[in-house]
Design brief:
This protein is an all-alpha fold and about 375 residues long. Helices cover about 80% and strands about 0% of the residues.
Amino acid sequence: MKWIGHRFSQYTLLLGMSSYFVTNLEFRQTRTTQTYALVLNALTLTLLPVAFWNLAKIMTLANWLPKFMWIAPYVLCSVNYIVIAYTLISRCYRDRMLMDLQIVLAQLRREVPRKGKKMPSKLQRLFLLKSFTVFYLCLAYLLSPFVYYGLQPWEYILNGVLINIAYNILVASTYFYFVCFWQIVRGYDFVNQQLEDIASSSTISSADLAEEIRNLHALHANLRRTALRINRHYGPQMLASRFDYFMFSIIYGYMGVIYSKYEKNPSVEKYYGALIYWVRSFDFFLNDYICDMVDRYQSKSKFININGSLSKEMSSYLIYENSMRLHLRVCGLYAANKSKWLQMVGSIIVHSVMLLQFHIVMSK
């Protein structure tokens, strides 16, 4: 899975989302990458408004979109641009988080092989699943101009390519968030496994076991500190991404329904757009799911019974761990978890139904 992270870091550097790249298992940046990211960000922020304006005009001229809904494409494109602009402007915060995450990764690379621990298959599958959805969405967005504007003049295709590259930024920004918290879950899983081994061990000396507990205490504290920093720095970004996904789901879903009713015959465009819609929905669900896992792994119940000289150290550690709950909340507003995602889906359905009711009334 390391090569997936390496390729993703190279791709985000290509998009201008970060000035860091991975070399020798470390995040590094140079003056060249800093300048490249800055120039590319400036060009993207300058050219995107014109590209989104042209896209909105093209969509309003489509025969299948009702005239009274002419504002919907402009609203969607405006929200997309605002979130993309914030993502690029806040790049320095994400780059700063990479340095904090690197400390945690160095600890895990040192401790996990030394103890011979293996990553749970559930975490591996989750990482691969998220990587697949991100890869699919990035590739699908890049190919979208050729699917929808294949016979149009090259200006339309070039405009579509620019916009869909920008959509890659929206998708990749949430992958950053997911991977950071996935590494935190991986660290908490190692702490839990090691604590169980310490509790069941009867051959290691008390001094060695006390040292192991101190190491776990340091790792646990670093994991908690990094998780809180990730949540603080990524909070506004994820709030903006959630709003973008909310608007995308309602407006894109509405336009998809209208287009499918207008175009009776099956077409590649309909299935292509529908697949993007559902894959992106599942991809966003994984963002909330990983936050749920951080909380569950960090607050996992521990039933440990140790007698002898280690009881004091173990009791001290368990008191510390049980008193240091994360309770992650996005910008202090809500906890990102599976139930919150389901509530958001319910809200999307309600607003989509209201929009379709408005369409039916205005069409009469």
